[in-house]
Amino acid sequence: MSIMKLRLLIVAVSSFCFCDSEVFFNSRHDDVPEWQLPHSNPHERRHWALIAAGSNGWINYRHQANACHAYQIMKRNGIPEENIVLMMYDDIAYNELNPTPGVIINHPNGPNVYEGVKIDYKRHDVTPENFLAVLSGDETLAKNGNKVIQSGPNDHIFVTFTDHGGPGFIAFPNERHLFANDLISTLKKMHREKKFKQMVLYIEACESGSMFENLLPKDINIYAITSANTTESSYVCYMDKLRQTYLSDYFSVSWMEDSDKEALDKESLQKQFLIVRKETKYSHVQEYGDKSISREMLSEFQAGPEYRPSPPIVLPKVPCGVVPADEAPLAILRHRLKTAKDEVSKQQLMREIDELLELRDRVAKTMQDIVTLATGDDVGQYERVYTKGHRDIDFDCYVPVFNLFHKRCYNVAKTYSANKQMKFLVNMCDEKISSERIMEAITRVCKE
Prior knowledge:
The chain is 41% helix and 12% strand. By secondary structure, the chain is of the alpha/beta class. The protein has 14 helices and eleven strands. The protein is globular and about 65 Å long. The protein has helices spanning 3-30, 61-76, 128-135, 139-143, 180-192, 250-261, 269-279, 328-339, 343-375, 379-387, 395-408, 416-419, 422-430, 435-445; strands at 47-53, 84-87, 156-162, 165-166, 169-172, 176-179, 198-204, 222-226, 236-240, 245-249, 286-289. The strands form three sheets. The protein has a six-stranded mixed beta sheet, with helices on both faces.
């Protein structure tokens, strides 16, 4: 073979191999979600958002409405859809009680916040384990095709969670709970592994301050805002006459309606905190962690890196009312009673109200019996358990006794009046009553 023919053959083969490999490369990536593709510039900052609603059921409509509204804010302001992870049960939009199927609103006569949302985890996949795995970019979850936050050392992460809570925990559907020590452990691990440059968390839940107080370090580049302090309820907002449920919560509506109308590159996190603290009238909004981050603009977390202000959305002011979140089920039933048009419905609603009040009394009596057994003859200790304010939580003691109470006595995730009783378990642990003794008392009082 001549040298010229050999050269031509080499060129032809090289061209064939290059084109074939190009086709193979593209075909592989066509099947891979964009969020899983390697980042083209590892030095470029990316913005991520994790949005979670931890409840289900029509009575908790507001939590999924809050989550959908937050999704619209992130998307409208330039965070790519592939960088937003949404967790919600998704039983509201087409619920049999929804008079407007496919529509969820977060403000009276407000826009449909459900439109266009992409839910990544729904129903039984909305769990504490998945929440932490998504946040930390769990490789196993990602390899199975599930969306996670694949962040790096230059990235910003915004996390917002909305649901019920209590001392040291926030609730999830299917009788699950995320405890503060597990959340903090995950955040510390992410910081050690350089999985973010800065992170901001907004938590809407009763006693949500207990997720961070004396737990979140000030030197791991995380700033957190909560709807309430360590001991008080958050408050619901916007009772809707048509839907006969609450559309939002004080804290959530305050920060989101502020973000809707402001240029996010002109307002700082600190300014939003001050606005929300003023607007949230009946609970004490708190801030934790690295407060120097609060000097950053909202656009650093609630928008994409190439943020361009969008037209402001200004909705008319509507009174929220004064109802603690744990009293919302009772308030909803009373509202329905007022608007009921026939005697049969009124009688049924009155029975439901009586049952709810009786349940609240039974839960309180159950806890009183447990405390009595656990403290024995020590009257002073009994009184301290019932009079102490918030204490740092001994999770080694608290978690197992909480789980046993949840299993044997009342479903804490569904029995909202039980959330308020959990502080007495915390106080018994703080009194150095052993978890074994408390669990023995629970077992004796709550017979299966």
